[in-house]
Amino acid sequence: MRVKTFRLSQSSAHGLRTIEPSVAAVGFFDGVHQGHQAVITKAKEKAASMNTKSAVMTFDPHPSVVLKKGKVHAHYITPLREKEEILDSMGIDYLFVVTFDQALAQLSPQQFVDDFFVGLNVQHVVAGFDFTFGHKGKGNMEQLPELSQGRFSQTVIPKVEKTEDKISSTRIRAVLDQGKVDEAIELLGRPYVMQGIVVNGERRGRTIGYPTANIDVEHDYYVPKIGVYAVIIHVNGHSYPGMANLGVKPTFEGDREPNLEVHLFDFDQDLYGKQVRVEFHVMVREEKRFDGVDALKNQLADDESQIRHFFA
Length: 312
Prior knowledge:
Layout (H helix, E strand, L loop, with lengths): L3 E5 L13 E5 L7 H17 L2 E8 L2 H5 L12 H10 L4 E6 L2 H4 L3 H10 L3 E7 L3 E2 L5 E2 L3 H5 L4 E5 L3 E2 L2 E2 L2 H9 L3 H8 L3 E8 L4 H4 L5 E5 L9 E9 L2 E10 L11 E6 L10 E12 L6 H19 L1
Parallel strand pairs: 1-4, 2-3, 2-5, 3-4, 5-8
Antiparallel strand pairs: 6-7, 9-10, 11-12, 11-16, 12-15, 13-14, 13-16, 14-15
Helix pairs in contact: 7-8
């Protein structure tokens, strides 16, 4: 991986004063969607023109985990590892991952600037028009020229829209909630992905002619609406089309938490223990309970025909 990742806290940022100068795109960037990409691409272009390193500064965990009492964890469109892989593919040099904790939340806007921009030798900051920082988000991009005290410059990226509405992580979560993964593709600029390890399942699919790879999804991915999807699996450098059931298998005893299992077309290799990436392309139907195995098999045959046609 090309991108070099630095894990930082409020107390450790000053330890990197000797790092090479950079132009930093700053934001939470959950999804690294097309709006985020506009910010990051501008930072990369600016870094090239200034002959410095390109950097992205993000935060972990999501601020809501720290600021909302009782919230234990968050679910992400792009968990940190996924975000890191995307930024690596974009050719970013540095990834600054700032730990969001109570100490960070209490920093004044000036202290945030001193610690995380000046302290990291950032020569130019690029952020979206709505980026805020410091205690209760009191710092904003309009104040940044004053807070920088001439120590670095800045660029503000205006709102990026799709169909006359702002592209945002909130909007992407909303379309995922509706199963509209095809709309998510338009906003992200790529298919929505979940990664995990193939594990042993109940092997019930084999008995009805539809063996599946049961995937233990890693990280805290945001889970789309349960249902049946046209997907492509990437494993060992190859890609294979298939159909995924994201759900609780109500025809049988059912599960409490949604599981992801994928039937790959024209595929008979052993995937147990393999790391896989599942791309979601379109939802074909909601999950439903069937009166028996024969009704389920008939529906699966219809699903397969529809999905093969989609990929054809």
